[in-house]
Protein: Dipeptidase
Amino acid sequence: MVEHVRDYLEQHQDRFVGELVEFLKIPSVSADSTLKAETRRGAEFVQQQMEAAGLESQLIETAGHPIVYGSWKKAEGKPTVLVYGHYDVQPPDPLDQWQTPPFEPDIRDGHIYARGATDDKGQMYTHIKSVEAWMKTKGELPVNVVFVIEGEEEVGSDNLDRFLAENKDLVACDIAVISDTSQYAPGIPAITYGLRGILACEVIVNGPRQDLHSGVFGGAVTNPANGLARMVAALHDDQGRVQIPGFYDNVIELKQEERDQFAALPFDETKFMSDLGVKAVSGEADFSTLERRWARPTCDVNGMVSGYTGEGPKTIVPAQARVKISCRLVPDQDPAALTRALEQFLLEQLPAGLTMQFIDYHGCKGLVFDFNSPYMAAARTAIEQAFGRAPVMIREGGSIPVVETFQSLVGVETLLLGWGQNTDNLHSPNERFSLEAFRQGTLASALLWQELANIQV
Structure:
């Protein structure tokens, strides 16, 4: 039966690409209130495609953009798989850096170029098409499926947690699947088994009630910019270790098996530096670059501003300085506890004569899944058959908060199966998605349903 599915996918691939083109034409920018109707049109497109594939589907209204829900639950005794994705996209700015308009998809050099091509319309769409292939050739799926496709991922998913908490019966499953990550490199498929968590905050340091003449008052009052610079400098020691008290207390150290896996991956550090335009790598001592990027906690300044930043000099003591800080976290660090510890640490570094305001933005925990689980084994088999080589097992340095939500609210782990590349210009001009990866990802998805059906639940 799998051969019939393969044949169907091959025969209809051109149509799938044409449908994706139509999907990518919809400017479903969730952050832009003037495009609310277009964002809804993106949801309606997804619902229509689900129904055409043979799923029961509905739009579920939220306080923001709707959630598209689809399901097929007739495989008695078989696992239930929840597929998550999002139909909203990032704003396309800056427009002048696009080679072709962001919502006029262009196919060139074996890629489709458009906003949302790989994040996440193209990747998510592979799973709808794989369901279609099974339903049109067999009339049924080997597993039960639930689709939750939201329209607010790019603006924080404010309404998703509420939907999941209030509809546990609708989203009950044995495993979740997300395709919103990347392969390790061209020709090297990957399964991501770990994500870093995050905490994010802003610190505002105030001094005099207004900017002061640096000649008249300089040296007599504490300069907020100078003070904040010292506070930020205190966050790390000379070995790159974060100095927030308790920061490393609950860190799960890398197993030697994982360190060996990372070391075996093809990684050219010289090319890495060249691609980024830097002269050296840096970070926590005694760890490799991949280990630092994927599996060690960090603390970074994301933005810092104070005083006059226009053209030419303006000799002042600024009244205020502010900094945005984020920490990437690993299991089992607690973002709430570390946010409090960061605030207290900075307060203790605050120079006399200044006051501090601390703004807590958001946080989520880091996660690591068992890469020897039967679900991981099923995914490895499906990907190897579709891509022609076994996937490598990697971690991701970024955060996907919904993965923690699935674990905490739904009680399931997630298969992170990315078909794109880190070089696909996600969130940037000229976003793209390989048509070959689109084909391989759709086949891998179809094969995954068969492999998961062999797991006893």
Summary: The mean pLDDT is 97.
